[in-house]
Amino acid sequence: MNSDLTQQLFDAVAHQVCQGRSLGTTVSLLCSDTRFSELADLHTRVEAAYARLTAGPIGTRARSRPEALALIGDYPHNPAYIRRALEPVLADAGLAMRVIYDATKFGDEALAGARLLIVLRDGMFWPEPGGPPVWWMTEAQETALADFVTTGGGFLALHNATALKRIDDGPCLYREVLGSSYNGHGPADEAFEVSVTDTPHPVTRGVRPYPAVDERHRAILHADDATVLLEARADGETTINGYARLYGSGRVCYLANGHTYDMLACDAMRRLLTNAARWCAGLTDPPV
User: Fold this and answer.
1) Are residues 127 and 234 in the same domain?
2) 17 and 75 share one domain
3) Which of 157, 216, 222, 234 sits at 20 to 30 Å (Cα–Cα) from 62?
């Protein structure tokens, strides 16, 4: 019971860190949370978890496998479900995973040694519960991401990563790399069908059309060199649900699904994510 609660507490602190909350705010919120009332030394536990989560990427540097850096979690997307869904995917892909919860620690140093960057989060912090959002990405961080991809790194953008820099379609370096911009989304429980538009592509290999219940994001595609891989259809409306492109010496893939664990972990998405991780990372040999 305590081990489960300890993990739940760690995940709860991680969610606060993803939102840009201070240590004081995090302690105040979680020490008054009745879910954790039976844990001894709760204040100390929260402080220890916060220190670990804000120190930089979590995970041991891999020596035998290429590494993926996952920048995950924000106000509407708890990082715990994202991490749980990505862990088996990256194991299948033959990649080690390091997770970064504190977006202020993202940059050149965090990317050093990585073969792949995965992002499922937006660019907003919510430092005060109920307060206004704050955009966190700096020019240096944007440049670090662009340099990483330009020089051969892979970039797998998921779900609301179109809003990592901004929520309009204005030009910026991040939009240039990703190739698309944010354009809103539907309700979290929208039902739609996903069709595969490019079956020979390595990302969609072995993937068949599948039903989805998800928050459907409607990205605006700006890159004229992108290959549309997936489309979502419902109520007479068709939207781009996934695409791939090259940028510099790197590879970029965007997959729109991912608002819930069930969606990220379903068979079709697990295959897509595994394929996309390997393709973006430039891995052509069978997984180890």
Assistant:
1) yes
2) no
3) 157
Contact criterion met (CB below 8 Å) for 182 and 225: no
- When pLDDT is averaged across residues 28-49 and rounded to a whole number, the result is 96
Q: Which amino acid is at 184?
A: G
Say if residue 242 is in the same domain as residue 219. Answer: yes
Residue 50 confidence (pLDDT) above 70: yes
- The tens digit of pLDDT for each residue in 97-133 reads 999 999 999 999 999 999 999 999 999 999 999 999 9
Strand order in the sheet with 154-158: 96-100, 67-72, 116-120, 154-158, 250-255, 237-247, 227-234, 190-196, 210-214
How far is 199 from 284, CA to CA, in rounded Å?
A: 17
Q: For residues 11 and 90, state if they share a domain.
A: no
DSSP secondary-structure letter at 61? Answer: P
Q: What is the CATH number of the domain that holds 222?
A: 3.40.50.880
Between the alpha carbon of residue 104 and those of residues 68, 101, 164, 174, the distances in Å are: 18, 9, 13, 17
User: Which residues contact residue 222 at a Cβ distance below 8 angstroms, ignoring those fewer than 6 apart?
Assistant: 169, 175, 179, 180, 181
Cβ count near 80 (within 10 Å): 18
- Which of helix, strand or coil describes residue 30? helix
Q: What range does the domain containing 220 cover?
A: 67-280
Q: Are 184 and 163 in contact (CB under 8 A)?
A: no
What is the H or E stretch that residue 32 is in?
none
Residues 143, 205: one domain? yes
State how far the Cα of 288 lies from the Cα of 273, in Å rounded to an integer: 17
